[in-house]
């Protein structure tokens, strides 16, 4: 653990984890092939852990808000990005460490990354609203399966935006997961929550798919933003990028809450909340913190490996979210859900088997080259 902590600290503070800059404009079209960097496994695992906390806990807490009397959609959306103040502590610590070094390089991210992150934050805020509105009409388990289709959207947009290579295994994975979501739509009323009409359920179904599509576009764009950085990119800059994304996403929700008069309604809603006024605040605060862990993990994983792996990891966490929703809220696990889940797991297996084969071939090729050179 001590060695892992040193690797993480080194990767964050020294900037040893870097992406290839693109001063040579002719090489932009080959970004995916040329942007090779060593993987800092402790840092990657740390971000995977953050993602797991957010992907599993975030939807459960958002649904908990609705189940006991919460009804303000923009307020629930706000919690998905409002936890950004927790980032100030690590950034302040890293800044002090940076100032203590005699020959330190730039600490703050460059202006164009600030602009990129602001634009990304606006779209993340809109995506959060689509997801939150959809979750108010469908159960967590169904929402999780639907949102897992972001992998298909990420795959398509990653191919277009960052020249992501595809294999038969990755294509098979995308197709299977898409079929899983279509299967859920064929039996829309199978797990419809009490008090939700068939039309509202279908609206939630398509809103969640729309959210998955939009986030599938946003993540490859963020990966491209990282690649367009003029200076070497380290995790300190990634944290600043995330902070800015969260701030602008929160501004979108904050403005909408003012227009929608959510702040005036919160006091009344808290008094009438089924779990009590104190738990009303606890649920919202915990949701904000947990969702922020998710965003930390997402942008960190994209930085360490790429947007497609981020989509795969999100989908891998699907079974755990399913089980947690069934246990916590006694949601029905219908046959359609089981079949959709099976297709998703089949897709995951296909993807990882393909990656295993590719790594095996690459290792064999490297050994052969080394043997010939010796």
TrEMBL record:
Against InterPro entries, the record matches this protein to: EmrE-like, PUP_plant
Keyword field contains tRNA-binding: no
Q: Which GO terms describe its cellular component?
A: membrane
Compositionally biased tracts (Basic and acidic residues): 21-34
Write down the membrane topology. Multi-pass membrane protein
The family annotation for this protein states: Belongs to the purine permeases (TC 2.A.7.14) family.
Q: Which PANTHER family match?
A: OS09G0467300 PROTEIN-RELATED, PURINE PERMEASE-RELATED
- What this protein is called in its record is Probable purine permease
> Which lineage do the record's taxonomy fields give for this organism?
Eukaryota, Viridiplantae, Streptophyta, Embryophyta, Tracheophyta
